[in-house]
């Protein structure tokens, strides 16, 4: 297979990669030399936003059907990853705009879609006014009100904290509508009367310094009835469906951060000499580097297919987006921790190695486990659906192979996204091709291994697949027989184990269906065995990786670093 059909997106990503340059050794507003000092001043680097605007980054927030260049969530994920590798703050800035606009793409009228599309193209921003100071993630308790008054709706109440609340023009607002339920409204601040809203000051966070994280309060703000987005009193369902998209996109922020941290750690491990040799020769340092790289590849195998699912099987996003939102940021935190250990004391400094960027990456990335639903909220969502999925875990899904090939064949670009709120569902209804296809995939892998692998590697793959199969059987038997509530600690832990099995299946499908990965920085098949062993380590702490394939894997890492390639199975630079 070739990458001919994926080339349009790859060319765009390559263009952005070239524009932003090398953050460690390069110059300009997306170099760490510019980013870290600007953050010390709680500012964005001078010229950074203009550089992205001139390039046309905002065009990728508007679907192609509405005149923009957003082809699908896969392309958004790849672009966001590229941006996050330099500065996560800008990924959040544009991500907050996409979040605020997404309800309009899903349910908006022609007039609403045209207005937002034109505004974003002209440089306007959007935000998602959902959370409130006293209610947190309890969205049903929203105290903001929307009261009908003739041909208008009168809004009152505060939304806080909200990304882009001050700088945005458009606000998607969740409010109690005439006392009958929650509805979503599109507010254009340029069309409000003077004094109809006020912004609260920027919140001082541990990370994302310079980002607009603030609040907005409405004071008898009058908007036309046409400001309603979607059906009345269906606002909570609309919010939950919207988050399925943006939760997946957050995985891209973690991928970019992991990639950047790994580069910093590897460069330091190559250059720093202790006891007469580069520190990369120290076994425990090598363990940190190899484990971090495997975590990045695993996270990629989890996130990218779910991004594709929005165009292929959007009804699966309810469960799969929560898997991404839980597992990928958690793995990102661990990669950052590993690289902190590699750098030692220098990882704590706000200067020195990579201009002191690692400490910024760690503080910025911490937000990924919090917004769009905390880690616990997403585990609860998975735990709620897990008994249904576990009950049919061994039943094949009709046309399941076709779905899996569409999700994991990276030689072809995902289909163009046609936004539809009705295509998204609040639960998966037990439809989960990724985990339910495991048994067939293991059988297929055994046949493929005979042709592609030497005898020792084939035996190693068979062994680790058998170990994961045993864990799978034990988990799903436990879940179907437990009868516990989704909010229990045991249910949350079971949900986390399910995510590991989901990740194992995703790695296996990427190996089976991902094509020859022309141009990928990862060569050979040993990565799969190592990645699956790495996932077993999550289920059995204390296990060590087999040394058989590590030398080849480290060689790929070193080559990717030297060539400036992404640490990726997917060739994102053409």
UniProtKB/TrEMBL annotation:
Keyword Metal-binding: no
CDD domains in the cross-refs: ACAD
Domain of life: Bacteria
Stretches assigned to the Acyl-CoA dehydrogenase/oxidase N-terminal domain: 39-123
Flavoprotein in keyword set: yes
Swiss-Prot/TrEMBL keywords: FAD, Flavoprotein, Oxidoreductase
Domain Acyl-CoA dehydrogenase/oxidase C-terminal: 234-385
GO CC annotation: plasma membrane
InterPro entries noted in UniProt: Acyl-CoA_Oxase/DH_mid-dom (IPR006091), Acyl-CoA_Oxase/DH_mid-dom_sf (IPR046373), AcylCo_DH-like_C (IPR036250), AcylCo_DH/oxidase_C (IPR009075), AcylCoA_DH/ox_N (IPR013786), AcylCoA_DH/ox_N_sf (IPR037069), AcylCoA_DH/oxidase_NM_dom_sf (IPR009100)
A single GO molecular function term of this UniProt record: flavin adenine dinucleotide binding
Cofactor(s), names only, from the UniProt record: FAD
Protein name, as recorded: Acyl-CoA dehydrogenase
Organism: Streptomyces laurentii
